[in-house]
Known about the structure:
Elements: E1 4-14, E2 24-30, E3 50-53, H1 54-62, E4 68-72, H2 82-91, E5 95-100, E6 114-118, E7 143-148, H3 151-163, E8 171-176, H4 183-193, E9 198-199, H5 203-208
Parallel strand pairs: 2-4, 4-5, 5-6, 6-7, 7-8, 8-9
Antiparallel strand pairs: 1-2, 1-3
Amino acid sequence: MSDTLIINEIYGSVQGESTHAGWPCVFVRTTGCPLRCRWCDTSYAFKGGSELTLDDIVAKVMSFGVRMVEVTGGEPLAQPNTPKLIQKLIDKNLKVLIETSGSEDISLLPVKTNIIMDLKCPDSAMMQHNKYENLKCLKSTDEVKFVIASRNDFIWACDAIKTYHLMDRCDLSFSPAWGHVHPKDLVQWILDERITVRLNLQQHKYIWGPRAKSV
Length: 215
């Protein structure tokens, strides 16, 4: 297996989501994803891209002079060399995040990786791909994100948090699916349920608009 990855884009911006929102970040977007979530906003990354060596990717990331990098997709763990890339980035003393659907094995990731796992709710139509054994691998520095597209998704997410005892395991966030749930409605549901989760808004969509790429 050659030391390469198919990369859709590499760009600098600010982190738009997660507990790291607002901080300068370099994004490495891999090509390809085995899932087809109904609300997906990065379908352009399903195909295309360029094959780059891991060293070339690291060099490009370092050229931005930013200490945080997120490996995202698509689904970055669909390519087997992604953990190796992350280790190389960690070796450069970078803070490395990965955004993954949780449909791939996260136990392969270096221990210093900051994992943001998107556990799929019913309205994604991809819930059957959730690899629940991944939840056992989560660290206190990791995060589980639930994209909420309906009241039904919200109820399911609350039940999942209780079923898998996630409340004290890692950071938890509920993100309103753009165009499906209004943030103020999700806030009210959170308050009514009295569940301790963080509202996760996609800041980049508010800054540049929902259709902008490479932001």
